[in-house]
Amino acid sequence: MKVLYFAWVRERVGKAEEALDPPPAVATVADLIAWLSQRGDEYAYAFEKPKVIRAAIDRMHVNQDTAIAGAREVAFFPPMTGG
Amino acid sequence: MKVLYFAWVRERVGKAEEALDPPPAVATVADLIAWLSQRGDEYAYAFEKPKVIRAAIDRMHVNQDTAIAGAREVAFFPPMTGG
Amino acid sequence: MTVPVTIRLQKEDFDVAREVAALSRGRTDIGAVVSFSGICRSDKADGEGDAIAALVLEHYPGMAEEEIARHAEEAVSRWPITGLTVIHRFGRIAPGDNIVLVVTASAHREAAFHAAEFLMDYLKTRAPFWKREEGSSGSSWVDAHDRDDTAAARWAKS
Amino acid sequence: MTVPVTIRLQKEDFDVAREVAALSRGRTDIGAVVSFSGICRSDKADGEGDAIAALVLEHYPGMAEEEIARHAEEAVSRWPITGLTVIHRFGRIAPGDNIVLVVTASAHREAAFHAAEFLMDYLKTRAPFWKREEGSSGSSWVDAHDRDDTAAARWAKS
Fold first, then answer.
1. pLDDT average, residue stretch B56-68
2. What is the C-alpha to C-alpha distance for residues D6 and D65, in angstroms, rounded to an integer?
C-alpha cells in the first residue's frame, strides 16, 4: 500500500510517500495511525494528536474508523486550508 | 410641483412630466393619485389600479399615505424591474 | 478609512475584468472579490411566446443614482467591505449583452458574497429601472416578481 | 444537456474576464454570472506578527481534481446552473495575487450565487490544499478555521 503525507504531516515524517505493508491486525485508518506512530520518533511526532489528522483512501476523504482493506493509496494530512 | 411618470404610467398618461398645482385638500400621495385620476381618461387609465402604483417624493420611495406638502418632485411608476 | 464606492449609470457596456481589477489593484488587504454580472436573456420574463429581440431599460435619472448610493452606503455599514462598484446600463440591450454589474471586495468571502447579494436584491426591487421587452409581435413591460420582493425582504433589519 | 464544467489546478495566474466570458459567450440563456476571486492577503491568518512575504500552497495531485469535480457535480445537481469553472493555483503566491477562482452561470441570480458560495465553502474545507505562510521570521502552516467548517455545514443535506 502506498502511504502519502502532506503539509506538516509530511514535514514531520520527513518524506512525502512510502510503500508499506502493515500486518493484518492493522484494520482501520486509526489502527494504521497507531501502527505508524510506533515506527519512530518522526512518526510519533507527526501523529502525536491523532484526532487532528485527516485521512483519504484512494483519494476519497474517510473517517478513521474506515477499514483499509484493499486500499491502494492512503494519505494523511492536516485539516485543509485551501480556497 | 413637478410630477414625473415612468414606464407604462408614462405611456398611459402620455407625457413624461408636467408642472401641477393641486388644491390644498390634496394632502397625501393617495389623494394626489385620486385627483390625477379625474383629470382625464389617460390619467384614469394610468391609475386604474392605484395600489400597483409606486411613488417617490424628491427621489425617495414613499408610501401612498405620505404627505406631499413641500414636495418639489413627485414621481409615479410601476414596481421596479431593474437589476 | 473611506471605502471606495463607484456607481455608474450608462448606456455603454462595461468591462468586468477592469472593474474587478480596479477594486483590488495595488492592495494586499483584500482576500475576496465577488462580481455579479446580470445579462440579457432571450427568453421572455413570463416564459411565454417568442424570444425577445431586445430589452429596453428606462430609469429615473437622479433618483436611480441616489437610491443605489443609499444601498451602497448601507452595504458598507453592514459588512466589512473594502470597496464596491455598481454599474447599471440603460437603453436598448440585446440578448447576451450585459445589463448590470456589482463588484464587492473584502478581506473575507462572506462579506463580499453577502454585500453583492444584498445589492442585487435591492437593485431588482428598489432601484428605479423598468424593463420593456421588444419582440417580433410588439413590446411589453416586464412584470415585477414576487420572488424578488421575498429575496429583498430577507435583508430587512428587525 | 450537459453543463460545461471546467476544473483546473495550475501554478500560473488566471484571467477572471476570460473565464467569465468563456461561460457566457454566444449564449442567450444565461442571466447571471457570479465570479469569486480569492486573493492572497499580506496579513497573517492568525492576525499576529509581521506581514507575510508569500503563501505557498501544497496540494494532493489527483485527489484535488477529483474532490473539486465531485463538488462541482453536486453543485450542478443542486442548482439550475448552466456552467461553472473552478481554478485553484498551487505553489508560491505573493500578496495581492490570485489564489482561487469560481465562476458560476445560470438563468437566475440565486442559483449562481448559491452554487458559487457552496463551491467556495467546500474548497475551503474539503479540497486537499494546505497553505504555508512565509515571513521574515520563518514559515508556518495556516490553521484551519472553525468558521469555515460552520460555513460548509450549512450546505449539508438533511
1. 98
2. 10
DSSP letter (8 states) at residue D2: P
Query: For B75, which of C60, C129, C148 is closest by C-beta distance?
Result: C60
Domain parsing of chain D, residue ranges? 5-142
Residue D151 predicted with pLDDT over 90: no
Contact D108, D98 (CB under 8 A): no
Pairing of strands B2-5, B73-77: parallel
Cell numbers at D44, concatenated: 497573517
Check CB contact under 8 Å for C33 and D39.
yes
User: What does the DSSP assignment read for B21-69?
Assistant: ---TT--BHHHHHHHHHTT-HHHHHHTSSGGG-EEEETTEEE-TTSB-T
The domain A2-77 is placed in CATH, from the list 3.10.20.30, 3.30.450.20, 2.60.120.10, 3.90.550.10, at 3.10.20.30
Residue D26: the pLDDT is 87
* Residue C12 contacts residue C97 (beta carbons within 8 Å): no
Distance from CA of D82 to the nearest CA of A (A): 23
What's the pLDDT score for residue D158?
62
User: What's the whole-number average pLDDT of chain C?
Assistant: 93
Q: Domain C5-142: state its class.
A: alpha beta
Q: What is the ipTM of this complex?
A: 0.91
For all residues of chain D together, what is the average pLDDT? Answer: 93
Cβ–Cβ gap C63/B77 under 8 Å: no
Q: Is residue C26 exposed (0-12), middle (13-18) or buried (19+ Cβ within 10 Å)?
A: exposed
What pLDDT does residue C151 have?
A: 86
Cα separation values, C26 from C22, C29, D97, D136, Å: 9, 10, 10, 21
Instruction: State phi, psi for C74 to the nearest 5 degrees.
Output: -65, -40
